[in-house]
């Protein structure tokens, strides 16, 4: 990360570190910036934990913090704070008033427990299913990861519950035809009007659907992070965490307008 990107994340990490002192009282052997660098590196390249470059902290230390931030919600706190800043930068209110719901089925690696995977009968694909709620700027509002055998209705209901709890300003949701009446009825109980965006039967070939195309764009952006090309995580919660970290990587780029350096230490230009 550049200095500008790190400054957007540093306050939350510094605060967390102050609230979680080491049992022995020391500050820790590794810089928190390098821990975050390692997590973002893995999300972007898709490498295994054990194959993190040697100039980054040991994978055991990196995974310790990844798991701790996953379990106490620090990863989502960082993500949500950045999302608010991106929305304000775009001239929007901090919280959205409408979301788009969609799901994506992905294959899993061999280390995924059988009880967390399943067969998606519609796509005839085995693995896990990711459900997201995104706003009109292509930012993630809520994430749910389940076995692929779970119906879109159940995922849609879980997403609406998360959206309503954290973003009470949302009053509208667009979905595809995979989400049935149960989602609309549940949304009505939460004060959210759920509308199914139907494909025009007379349209030939591919055509972006109004509103719904934004969720598809979010999935396309996430696929630039190779760790998400397949679900490699043992726990669905880790899969959700990796989505939050990948979106965090995208948002700090949007906020700072900086690109990742090819090398850590730029080669000086000869005079």
Q: Care to give the gist of this entry?
A:
GO terms for molecular function: DNA binding; transposase activity. The protein is of the alpha/beta class.
Notes on the protein architecture:
- The chain is α/β, with parallel strands linked by helices and 271 residues long.
- It has a domain of 138 residues: Nucleotidyltransferase, domain 5.
- It is 43% helix and 14% strand.
- It has eight helices and six strands.
- Strands 1, 2, 3, 4, 5 and 6 form a six-stranded mixed sheet that branches.
- The longest helix is centred in the C-terminal third of the chain and has 21 residues.
- The chain is globular and about 60 Å long.
- GO terms for molecular function: DNA binding; transposase activity.
- Pfam families: DDE_Tnp_1, DUF4096.
User: CA-to-CA gap between the ends?
Assistant: 27 Å
Name the average pLDDT. Answer: 90
Number of helices: 8
The main sheet comes to: 6 strands, mixed
CATH architecture of the domain at 95-232: 2-Layer Sandwich
Which radius of gyration do the C-alpha atoms yield?
Answer: 20 Å
Protein traits:
single chain, 271 residues, alpha/beta, six-stranded mixed sheet, globular
Task: Produce the secondary structure layout.
Layout: H1 3-19, H2 32-45, H3 59-72, H4 74-89, E1 98-106, E2 118-120, E3 125-134, E4 140-147, H5 152-166, E5 172-175, H6 181-189, E6 193-196, H7 213-222, H8 236-256
């Amino acid at each position: 990360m550049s200095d500008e990107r790190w400054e957007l994340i540093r306050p939350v990490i510094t605060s967390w570190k102050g609230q979680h002192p080491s049992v022995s009282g020391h500050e820790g052997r590794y810089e928190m910036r390098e821990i975050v660098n390692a997590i973002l590196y893995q999300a972007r390249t898709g490498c295994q934990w054990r194959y993190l470059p040697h100039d980054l902290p040991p994978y055991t230390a990196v995974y310790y913090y990844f798991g701790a931030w996953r379990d106490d919600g620090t990863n989502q706190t960082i993500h949500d704070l950045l999302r608010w800043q991106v929305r304000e930068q775009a001239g929007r209110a901090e919280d959205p008033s409408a979301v788009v719901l969609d799901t994506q089925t992905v294959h899993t690696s061999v280390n995924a427990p059988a009880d967390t995977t399943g067969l998606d009968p519609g796509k005839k694909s085995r693995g896990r299913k990711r459900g997201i709620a995104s706003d009109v700027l292509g930012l993630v509002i809520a994430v749910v990861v389940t076995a692929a055998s779970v119906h879109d209705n159940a995922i849609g209901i879980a997403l609406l519950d998360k959206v309503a709890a954290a973003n009470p300003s949302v009053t509208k949701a667009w979905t595809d035809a995979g989400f049935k009446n149960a989602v609309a009825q549940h949304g009505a109980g939460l004060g959210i009007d759920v509308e199914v965006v139907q494909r025009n039967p007379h349209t030939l070939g591919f055509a972006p659907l109004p509103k719904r195309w934004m969720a598809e764009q979010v999935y396309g952006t996430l696929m630039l992070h190779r760790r998400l090309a397949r679900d490699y995580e043992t726990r669905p919660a880790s899969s959700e965490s990796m989505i939050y970290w990948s979106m965090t990587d995208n948002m700090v780029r949007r906020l700072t307008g900086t690109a990742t350096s090819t090398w850590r230490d730029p080669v000086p230009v000869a005079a």
